[in-house]
Design goal:
By secondary structure, the protein is mainly α. Helices cover 67% and strands 0% of the residues. It is built from 18 helices and no strands.
């Protein structure tokens, strides 16, 4: 459907409300943790680059940003500080997000955690609105609202608001998809390239975009549209070469995966491994969620192949394959729930159905409880995703 001004206004208001609500919820939870622990104990004592966690308790921002600054946030800050010099392992993290944070720190007195706080708040609202918009164009206003609610309270949604690249990356991906569906292949390819410079697996957009360009374009326009997709691998190559130059290690973008214990498995290995972990410790919430998402996405892909738009199904399949095969650590899938944030078609399908107000409230409330539990785990140094 073609959105009208009222529908657009509704999406903007809801996106801002949800992003601010989640921001305040995390701030209150983090502050409450400090009420219990004068200094939050990091249970993961081997946490990489732990020196980057803020320690100045006299800083008025300390109690707000300190609980957010964990795991990948520490690596992104390292990229912002060193620009890949002296730490080859940082090559796993592509630079657009830390560069944008650095731009804020260069023109203001804000530290990395504070600059990331504002940047992520802004792009979380942008990502929520773009998700609402794409659901609105495919279905209707009520379905888009339900989809946004399901997405915004998903237990891993707190990763939008910690110093991770998720909101920036998701925003670029959604703009690329919207542009492709509107018949703007150049703009779509440019934002897909931005997504790739933010996270390397953004390069997988080349496959669903190629399908959309071929399906929607006239015969005479198909080839020129497909040529624009060269921007995606080109952006990857440029960043990879930049990392090589800065680290002094040739092909570091490829070598770093083995250093992070990523291994290419047989097709059934990740699912069986995830099931084994689930059965061995069924009371571990993060692992339970990982197994449910993995098995649920496989099930959804099978049963939805003729029920949703072909381009949406291809998009989900491509990114699930990327996650399923290239985030396997030899014994477990890495970051299942966080990577599920890109599985847009599943959340949009949830919005299509009307389970009733009672069940909607139960879902929202239980998801928020899990979100808070996972955030507490994350703040205390337990690896969640």
């Amino acid at each position: 459907m073609n959105p009208n001004k009222k529908d657009i206004k509704t999406g903007i208001i809801l996106s801002v409300i949800f992003s601010l609500f989640l921001r305040l919820l995390l701030a209150f939870t983090g502050f409450s943790l400090f009420s219990i622990f004068p200094k939050i104990p990091l249970t993961t004592v081997q946490m990489d680059l732990v020196r980057n966690i803020p320690t100045d308790q006299h800083d008025p921002w300390y109690y707000i940003v300190q609980p957010l600054h964990r795991f990948d946030a520490l690596w992104y800050e390292e990229v912002e500080k060193t620009n890949y010099k002296g730490e080859p392992l940082t090559a796993k993290f592509f630079p657009l997000y830390p560069w944008m944070v650095k731009l804020i720190t260069d023109i203001s007195p804000a530290t990395f955690p504070v600059a990331a706080f504002f940047l992520n708040t802004f792009f979380t609202a942008i990502a929520f609105f773009l998700f609402y918009y794409i659901a609105l164009t495919e279905y209707n206003r009520q379905a888009a609202i339900r989809s946004l609610v399901a997405y915004a309270v998903f237990p891993a949604a707190f990763f939008f608001l910690v110093p991770y690249a998720e909101p920036l990356f998701i925003s670029f991906v959604l703009i690329s998809l919207i542009s492709a569906k509107k018949g703007r292949p150049f703009l779509s390819s440019v934002f897909a390239a931005f997504a790739t410079v933010t996270k390397p697996y953004g390069g997988a957009l080349i496959l669903p975009l190629a399908y959309i360009f071929w399906k929607n374009g006239e015969v005479k326009n198909k080839v020129p549209a497909l040529l624009f997709l060269i921007l995606i691998p080109l952006s990857f190559i440029l960043i990879a070469r930049f990392q090589d130059a800065m680290t002094g290690v040739p092909f570091i973008a490829f070598k770093v995966n083995s250093a992070w214990s990523v291994s290419l498995p047989l097709p059934w290995d990740p699912l069986l491994s995830q099931m084994k972990v689930f059965l061995a410790n069924p009371m571990n919430l993060p692992n339970d969620m990982d197994f449910v998402i993995t098995a649920g996405t496989i099930t959804y892909l099978y049963f939805s192949r003729r029920r949703i738009r072909r381009e949406d199904w291809i998009f989900l399949l491509v990114f699930f394959i990327v996650f399923y095969f290239f985030q396997y650590r030899g014994y477990i899938l890495n970051g299942v729930s966080r990577y599920a944030l890109i599985f847009f078609p599943i959340f949009m399908s949830m919005g299509r159905y009307k389970p009733g107000r009672f069940l909607e409230i139960i879902y929202a409330f239980s998801s928020l409880i899990l979100l808070l539990i996972f955030f507490v785990f994350y703040a205390l140094g337990f690896f969640v995703a």
